[in-house]
Amino acid sequence: MLSKPYLGVLVGGALLSASIQAQDYLPVLQYHHVSNTTPRSTSVTPEEFAEHMGYLQSGGFQVVDLRSALDDLKANKPLPEKAVAITFDDAYSNIYQSGFPVLKANNFPFTVFVNSGPVERNSRSFLSWEQMKEMQAVGGVFANHTENHPYMLRKEATESDDAWFARMSQELDVVETALVDKLGNSPKMLAYPYGESNHRIRDMVKEKGLMAFGQQSGVISADSDFENLPRFPASGPYASLSTLKTKLNSKPMPLLSEDAGGDFATDQPVSIRLTFKDGQYRLKDLACYVSGQGKASLDWASDNDVVATASKPFGVGRGRINCTMPDRSGQQYYWYSNVWIRSAPEQGYVSEKS
């Protein structure tokens, strides 16, 4: 019989091993279409999707329920080693036709963000409530993507700021009601259409008790902004399995703070200030890349404080800076991304202060 002290060593060792294997961050994959005939920029082919899911299965990844994992991270509870979550935006019918059979065969949970307008209009291009119920029975979760998929920061002609804000609130409320009425519950999660939000929208989302996702890439941790969470796109130019492997092996950038100067870009090059937590990092290997421009310039204000600046202004639309840094082992990368909007007057965007 084992002595009590020896039993204590075994138990303590098992707990230590479990804590080493636990993961305090979560990469989330973002898909739209699973089809050969839809726009390539937002699509994976059925063959590519099967390849992605096969890699998750063979690579020992633990596909987790998204909302449960977010709750655990926020509460500083560990996730399984190699945890990952799978999401789809827009609730296209080809998810049911070409994605769902693969997810079901692998017993993978997943989340679909639904814009309910075309569903209610019985559009053949979108999932029906009955299909969602079938998917829900085997791990599918359905969340909010607004009713009509608007640019949430654009006002209609002659619309006041208050009227715009009320319309955006209604866009969310309609879907929350539909999810409860048609599917029995809402996971209280939102994906912003086009990934766009500002401080006022994010405050509203928080007041409604929702967690929300943008379209900046990165990894979620307890330090993340739970009203503007990152995901990794896995469609179109990002559908390559080799690219996906790098993202799945990423960790959240160890930041103490960040300052991007707001959500909107101007006619001047954007910059972002990143302040790193104390620790042993390979800061000399930090690299930041500007969409369409190449590397950003890095100006180190102190040992842990850097400003990354684009070489020229963004054009109209969305632009980003992605930063990566190898960890001490060189086996994984820390990852961070920020997105800015460069608006044109005719687009009707709200002001930075709205």
From TrEMBL:
<protein>
    <submittedName>
        <fullName>Polysaccharide deacetylase family protein</fullName>
    </submittedName>
</protein>
<dbReference type="InterPro" id="IPR051398">
    <property type="entry name" value="Polysacch_Deacetylase"/>
</dbReference>
<keyword id="KW-0732">Signal</keyword>
<feature type="domain" description="NodB homology">
    <location>
        <begin position="82"/>
        <end position="284"/>
    </location>
</feature>
<feature type="signal peptide">
    <location>
        <begin position="1"/>
        <end position="22"/>
    </location>
</feature>
<dbReference type="InterPro" id="IPR011330">
    <property type="entry name" value="Glyco_hydro/deAcase_b/a-brl"/>
</dbReference>
<dbReference type="Pfam" id="PF01522">
    <property type="entry name" value="Polysacc_deac_1"/>
</dbReference>
<dbReference type="InterPro" id="IPR002509">
    <property type="entry name" value="NODB_dom"/>
</dbReference>
